[in-house]
Design brief:
The protein has 357 residues and is α+β, with helices and mostly antiparallel strands. It is 40% helix and 20% strand. Keywords: Endosome, Guanine-nucleotide releasing factor.
Length: 357
């Protein structure tokens, strides 16, 4: 069992501690093992302690260059041994997307630090989880890594909530994800951004790819540069200025106003037709069924999505080098689909790297 746990836990990369002292100074106090200056600055930016607005965000998560970060922040009660500290954040970095897992573990680390006032006890627990997949303590709760399945994390968001907010327009998000387009989501509250963005990859469940998710991005040069290296993504922002950055998105979601906008440069690829209308109706019908759970709605969308790929199959052929299948454009044109359907299937083949170079 220890070996199983260890295989799972090699996903953790590091742990860090950020403190705000009684003078209002925010400092990176400790980490294990070492970290880079770039990552340290990014994590200081993400933890809410340096924010002018003094709003406390108990838990935030995101991704930067394939490293996931999870940050739990707490206020220090008067009863704690930490006399010169008003707040602190525990930061975990990892290779995997699993907010529930790392929220549970960082909460335990927070309790340890509040109780003992020294990073040593945190490091012991971190190493126990890293090597055995488990840490146990009577007063601070126990944590078992294998209780937190990745698939559960993928299904934790509510697709029904997305559809109840956007209705038929959800098909715009589905199409953008199918075509591996760039989606930017804005809301002034980080919790709303994270809840919404984490759910979207489930619209293309057949890929089970959450690496496209960047749920907490700032308009800082290093973050935007990293983001723009990704071919398609879902990026969450709390800065309204992002709405003016059409170089960052093909589809812009203003979550606060429940509005979805397709950028002018993406309109041709995103032209909607009969196929999309059918997909939209299916999404809405399934999501509005009170008998269906979120995972059943995802399954319905996934089955319909597979049908679209079945549509594409007759127009693909084995490439000359015996590698993956490529699109036969002539065969697609001869089928005389409605223009919007043909256009979509062509762009889908491009997204799936099925075009002959």
């Amino acid at each position: 069992m220890a070996a199983d746990g260890a295989a799972d836990t090699q996903l953790m990369l590091g742990v860090g501690l950020i403190e705000k002292d009684t003078n209002g100074e925010v400092l990176w106090v400790w980490c294990y093992p070492s970290t880079t200056a770039t990552l340290r600055n990014l994590l200081l930016r993400k933890c809410c302690l340096a924010d002018e607005n003094r709003l406390l965000h108990p838990f935030v998560f995101g991704q930067y260059r394939r490293t996931w970060f999870y940050i739990t922040t707490v206020e220090v009660p008067d009863s704690s041994v930490l006399k010169k500290v008003t707040h602190f954040s525990i930061v975990l970095t990892a290779k995997d997307f699993n907010p529930e897992k790392y929220a549970a573990f960082t909460r335990i680390l927070c309790r340890l630090y509040l109780r003992h006032g020294s990073p040593v006890r945190m490091m012991e627990s971190y190493i126990a989880v890293l090597t055995k997949g488990i840490c146990q303590s009577e007063e601070n709760g126990s944590f078992l890594s294998k209780d937190f399945d990745a698939r559960k994390a993928y299904l934790a968001g509510s697709i029904k909530d997305v559809v109840s907010q956007f209705g038929m327009e959800t098909v715009i998000l589905h199409t953008a994800l199918m075509l591996k387009k760039r989606i930017v989501v804005y809301h002034p509250k980080i919790e709303a951004v994270q809840e919404f963005t984490r759910t979207l990859p489930a619209l293309v469940w057949h890929r089970q790819d959450w690496t496209i998710l960047h749920s907490y991005v700032h308009l800082d040069a290093d973050e935007l540069e990293a983001l723009q290296l990704c071919p398609g993504y879902i990026a969450g922002f709390v800065d309204s200025e992002v709405s003016n950055r059409s170089d960052l998105y093909d589809v812009f979601v203003n979550l606060a106003d429940s509005e979805i906008t397709i950028a002018p440069h993406a309109k041709e690829a995103m032209t909607m037709g009969k196929l999309h209308k059918e997909m939209g109706h299916l999404i809405v019908q399934s999501a509005e069924d009170p008998e269906k759970s979120d995972s059943q709605v995802i399954q319905d969308i996934s089955l319909k999505t597979k049908e679209i790929f079945t549509n594409l199959a007759p127009f693909s052929e084995a490439s000359g080098d015996g590698g993956k299948r490529v699109l036969n454009l002539e065969a697609l044109k001869q089928r005389r689909f409605p223009p919007a359907t043909e256009n979509f299937l062509y762009h889908l083949a491009a997204a799936e790297q099925m075009l002959k170079i």
